[in-house]
Amino acid sequence: MQFNEHSDFQLLRNGIALKRGDSAVGDQALDFLDEWRKDDPTISLQTSGSTGVPKVVQVEKAVMWHSATATIAALGLAESIHALLALSPQYIAGKMMIVRALLGGWKLHVHDLSTAILDDLRSDFDFAALVPLQVKGRATQLNKIGTTILGGAPVDAGLLDEMNEVKTRVFETYGMTETVSHIALKELRPHTQDAFHAVPGVTFSVNADSELRIHAPQWNHTELQTTDVVSLLNENTFVWKGRSDFVINSGGVKIHPEKVEPILSKLVGKSVYVTSRQDDALGRRLVAIVEGEVPELSRELLQSSGLSVYETPKAWLSVSSFPMTESGKIVRHKL
């Protein structure tokens, strides 16, 4: 048995041992287990394509095992707990749930993929990994899960407000396929933190442009340079601001879409994303995009929201639907 796989590990569907043909997600999980148990030291991972063309990368199984160890330690997860597999085993988030279950000897319950999965739960669980899209409109259902981690897309202000009645533990994650899932956690409930905290074995620094560098030797990254702009509090803690490759330079002012979008979304009452268009005076002008009807917002309301004159949209556009990944993350190069 590779990597000291826990003998109590079980893969279940509707409370009984999973068999091939029970469900598409179950077959994907079994396919991953077959690949995991082969002698090949690496696993193929598919990126989401949110920032470019989806691609396949190779990672070492030993790194995935270490990542699982760090997550279990950071969250204090016990052995032989009941966990929920609610994400596709074709991507890193779903694969890592299986690896954590193998390490911890968990009973891993396979569920059909759905944005309404929280409505369908028939029992409580000790641990689950979800994407924000699965929680929006259903946040109080997180009380059925002892500890939940949310990843794949940022947690916006609206979803955070929804969690006011959540009494169980909820964390937002920071990571990428190259780091084999998350390498930092931010507590959202029962306490709300502004900063991400490194899991064991990871430290941070920044370059001259305040872009995050990840130092994670056991993940095979002595120095991984990202395009995430952060405020570094110490070598283990940072506040995330946005992506430098998404920055819009308007009139010489750098605008982070990730800062503007939550404010506009709260004003409008639905999701708003921003991009830019060529402008003779400003170089680039900010453009806001919504699904459906374009809202009418007064200048006074926009100014009172805390947005600067440069961060105020110069035009609004409507689309029938946003280009999104399966995890609910905007695909900006298509936007």
Automatic annotation (TrEMBL):
A Gene Ontology biological process term: fatty acid metabolic process
Keywords: Ligase
Gene3D superfamilies according to UniProt: 3.30.300.30, N-terminal domain of ligase-like (3.40.50.12780)
AMP-dependent synthetase/ligase domain mapped to chain residues: 35-190
InterPro entries found in the cross-reference section: AMP-bd_C_sf, AMP-dep_synth/lig_dom, ANL_N_sf
GO-annotated molecular function: medium-chain fatty acid-CoA ligase activity
Keyword Ligase assigned: yes
Keyword Ligase: yes
Pfam families noted in UniProt: AMP-binding
Family: Belongs to the ATP-dependent AMP-binding enzyme family.
Protein name, as recorded: AMP-binding protein
Source organism of the structure: Phaeocystidibacter luteus
Source taxonomy: Bacteria, Pseudomonadati, Bacteroidota, Flavobacteriia, Flavobacteriales
